[in-house]
Amino acid sequence: MKELKEILISLLNLLGWAWWVEIATDNPRCTYYFGPFLSKNEAETAKNGYIEDLEQESAQGISFAIKRCKPSALTVYEEPGEMGSRGKSPAYSG
């Protein structure tokens, strides 16, 4: 059963229909992608652990989104002065 789930997740990810947790931080200025997940619920459940890990690494200005996407990189570093347009809602305050 686990193998079937992994195959389904891989297929959904290939099509860009898998769910991902996107977490953006202001310091360091990065966007992280965690996934893929089969359902939005699974991603929602997993996000707290990722946020806690980033907080332990002293990341600041953490915001997140749960969305269907197909990230080309799991970590995106933004150059200083670069004005990326990030969706900041819903913001995490913890």
UniProtKB/TrEMBL annotation:
This is DUF1816 domain-containing protein. It comes from Laspinema olomoucense D3b.
